[in-house]
Amino acid sequence: MILETHVVVAMPTKTLIGQALQSLHYLISFTLLFRIPVARVFLLIIEVISMAKTNTTELLETLAAEIGENVYIDIAKWHLYLSDAKLHTVVAEQMYPLITSNSVNENQVIAVLQSIPVKIGGGRRELSLIDFLPLQCQTILIDILEKYQREV
Question: Can you give the residue range of the structural domain that contains 36?
């Protein structure tokens, strides 16, 4: 007797987690069909989840590096790249959900940039990152995010 299983994937299958859940569905079906020991399937599931986390980490690191090398803040006509300002990682982490949900657009990116605080004056004040980015850098950032969105 073959049992039929259904795994509902709540995320778009283009996301890494969506792909992992889809793989999990195939693993469960394979187990029931060929009667593989549950322990072996459990180990395979752990491998799939681990691969998804590794891919996500690598993607975030690559995204952060590209943002850090190409996007800068402008202070009195001085350009401080986000990697030098140690802001590239937080920008990548905050933008990543837009990429995985396939919702990168100018309004969403600006909203995220507005939500990222930048401390100035030794932490006496905070301004939004959007206040420091020239329009050209906003465009570069959106282009980078759209490129990653197409690749994911």
Answer: 16-55
pLDDT for the residue numbered 52: 56
Q: Is residue 39 part of a domain?
A: yes
Question: Based on the structure, what is the number of domains in the chain?
Answer: 2
92 and 119 in a single domain? The answer is yes
> What is the predicted pLDDT for the residue at 77?
93
Lowest pLDDT segment from 31-35, 47-51, 128-132, 145-149 = 47-51
- Pure H helices in the chain: 16-34, 38-70, 88-100, 106-115, 135-151
Round to whole Å and give the CA distance between 126 and 132.
11
Assessment of whether the complete model's pTM goes beyond 0.70: no
Q: d(Cα 12, Cα 48) in Å, to the nearest integer?
A: 17
44 and 66 fall within a common domain: no
Shared domain for 106 and 132, answered yes or no, is: yes
CA 30, CA 138: separation in Å to the nearest integer?
A: 47
